[in-house]
Amino acid sequence: MHVSDETPANSPRPGDPPAAYPEGTPGVPPGPPPAPPRPPAPRHQPPRHASREHPPPRRSREQGPAQPPRHASREQPPQPPRRQPPQPPEEPQPPAQQPLRKPPGQQRPPAQQQPRTQQQLPAQQRPPVQQRPPAPQLPGAPPPGRTAPADRSAPPEPPGPPAPPEPSLGAGRRRLADSVWPPRLTRSQLIVALLLFVLGLGLAIQVRSTGESSALRGARQEDLVRILDELDDRTQRLEDERERLEDQKAELENSSDQAEEARRQTEAKERQLGVLAGTVAAEGPGIEITVRGPEGAGSEGAVEADMLLDTIQELRAAGAEAIQINGVRVVAGTHFADSGENDVAIDGRTVSQPYVFRVIGRAEDLEPALNIPGGVVQTMEEEQATVSIEPRDTVLVDALRREKRPDYARSSS
Amino acid sequence: MIAVLGLVAGIVMGLVVQPVVPAGLEPYLPIAVVAALDAVFGALRAMLDGIFDDKVFVVSFLSNVVVAALIVFLGDKLGVGAQLSTGVVVVLGIRIFSNAAAIRRHVFQA
């Protein structure tokens, strides 16, 4: 982004390059002699070298022809470091060319550039500013035909890739260190701080909100709707229960004979629990299911325990309240096992075909639950079993389960 | 330095105060954050190159954020919000990587 942003900024510079180059042209042809010029006019030359040593293509692209004057003020501190690194590498180069360069190139640039820069940046007090302009100009100076090629060719460093990075390395690090350590309270620092503050804020908010609801965040809309519905249902059920319990409480408190009322409620509760536990016979509307295995005895597709278990689970999920199979009451702890070709052990008692389920519950709920595609009935029919389901107004579940009394545990309430 | 302090202060503030983002802006926040990160990396690179300019930074930061949010908004309106935001993240990610590579070259010379 910055690259692109800064290119426009460069446009103001167009005038500069021509001025700077003429000077360079004479000196440049000699090529490498940048080092000598330094001593006389340290400010100007250093920038040049630096620019050359950086990878030329990248520089020209990023920085463009020139940077806006403002940069200069900001970057003045960092620049000094830049100069130094470039110098050492250049010194080794042929000294003979130095003289050539010096007279034409160096002396002019200082004179010309200084006035110019000052005009542009009246506010800037420091001379280092000038260093900047020269640097960009060199790479970005394609217009003057001779100069540009000369400049490029002049620095022999580019061919050797290792050389360029060093100066930039030092410069970059130093610039970083400069900008970090002595904290300066400048306008740009404050503005940047403000924007970074906003960024940090957004980052923190986003991270926090992402961490919070990660389970729901990725869910699809339909799933979210379903979850919401379920929550609503659950809320409704809990509300109902709360209401019921409050009614109960009110009855207990207001009834004239509180003991009688309490006994009545307890008995009701006991009956309710008895039906669930299978210790009490139950009667009510429901369905009767008859499952017959395939006719040929010993055939492969016999109805097995797991199918019965699936049936029970399906019935329970659909709201069955009491179930018995061929005289065995099915409760929470009931277990199924295959015991032979045509029979199944339920709670340790052998039950033979046909299996007759008596189920108390809402027939309208139970029947579809068994008949859903891919459901229990279909699965059993695939095994050549025949299944018939008949709704009944009255189903008697009278098989009982022996009540198990704990030997040691006593109710604590 | 002050800039770093600003970043830290922002993060701390976001974690401590836990401000609530208006629901309307919520979808744009993540993409805006990524765009802003891109701007910050670009600025860091420019600083190392010695061409940092606060005005350029401010403009690029804000325009990045706005354009990214705009693209997501437009994508939502066109029904391709998810794909477009993926595209934006990919592009910004590539730029962040290239800027990070330049920064790395400066700092580690490698």
Give an overview in words.
The complex is a heterodimer of chains A (413) and B (110). In chain A, 54% of the residues lie in helices and 11% in strands. With 413 residues, chain A is an alpha+beta fold. The longest helix of chain A has 34 residues. Chain A is elongated and about 90 Å long. Chain B is mainly α and 110 residues long. Chain B has one domain. Chain B is globular, with a radius of gyration of 16 Å. The interface between A and B is large, with 57 and 55 residues. Chain B: InterPro entries: DUF1290 (IPR009709). Chain B: Its main location: membrane. Chain B: It is a multi-pass membrane protein. Chain B: It is found in: Cell membrane.
Short description:
The complex is a heterodimer of chains A (413) and B (110). Chain A is an alpha+beta fold.
Question: How do the helices and strands line up, and which of them pair or pack?
Answer:
The complex is a heterodimer of chains A (413) and B (110).
Chain A: H1 2-10, H2 16-27, H3 45-53, H4 56-63, H5 69-75, H6 79-83, H7 87-90, H8 97-106, H9 108-120, H10 128-131, H11 134-140, H12 147-153, H13 165-180, H14 187-212, H15 214-217, H16 221-254, H17 258-277, E1 282-292, H18 305-317, E2 322-325, E3 328-330, E4 336-338, E5 343-346, E6 349-352, E7 355-360, H19 363-371, H20 376-382, E8 386-397
Chain B: H1 2-17, H2 29-49, H3 54-78, H4 81-108
Helix pairs in contact in B: 2-3, 2-4, 3-4
Keywords (chain B): Cell membrane, Membrane, Transmembrane, Transmembrane helix
Main location (chain B): membrane
Subcellular location (chain B): Cell membrane
